[in-house]
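Section 5.1 Outputs to date
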Amino acid sequence: MKNQRTAGTGVVALVLVFGSLVFAGGASAKLVGEFTKFQQCPYTTEGVFRCLYSLTTSGEVVMGSKKVPIVNPTVLQGGYTKPSFEEGPEESFSKFFAAKNGETLTKVSQPVPGGLAGLVNCKEISNFLLRISCEITFENGITGLNSTLELARPASEIRVSENHLGEALGVALKLPVRVHLENPFLGSNCYVGSSSSPIKWELTSGATNPPPPNTSISGSTGTVEFLENARILQLKDAVIVDNAWSAPSATGCGGIFSFILDPIVSSAAGLPSAAGKNTAILKGTISTTTSAALRKVDAENP
């Protein structure tokens, strides 16, 4: 069964009705059909009420002076509790549980336009050994630069609000992240953001309220679809956005030469970058179901 309609503020009512559906549990076996996307959700774990599979297929991240289009699909997946009010009396966020395979946010590289040449000019490096290493890298044609979004804090610090997502008003997803800049010359630990100083995205399907110079942008709940006899709620062509976050300087670039490369990379990328100068736009499909529904599907498919 598959019904569609354009999502609006009424989506929250559908979400609440859908969330009230309860199915009897059973012995674990396997998931089938549209339910297979939720196989990494810890749906048998105590406290997990619903499961999330959010597939981002396009969009962009603007950080400092660099814009990175999202061209390779990424996934945010896991489970979450019933809403609580620990964030304050006006808020209703759910606590998050990590994916069973540990890949709560899949590490997928996105090519950075301009590559390494957009960050590093070998001739500007005063250290002889580092300059030679830079020149060898370029001479060998290893000039591509990738950017990989990673969780900066444990998955338990992610927060989800179905109400805000459905109403297109307020923060729908709180996500602590860091950006891994990847090229052999930069070494394996070149990051923007860290566990102690994460980039804090507060994504909304509604309108943002950033400090200047950014102006308000809007997300969208997309189109509501009910799959598998209304046991899966899917928001197709959803867009969640945030352009009010800040980004720190790059750290760890070049290994033992990070004290030289960190300032070079940061300066070229326009980092640190204050709130109101960065943007995240994530476009894709957001799917949810109940943990009870998944347990029932398991029991029906030994």
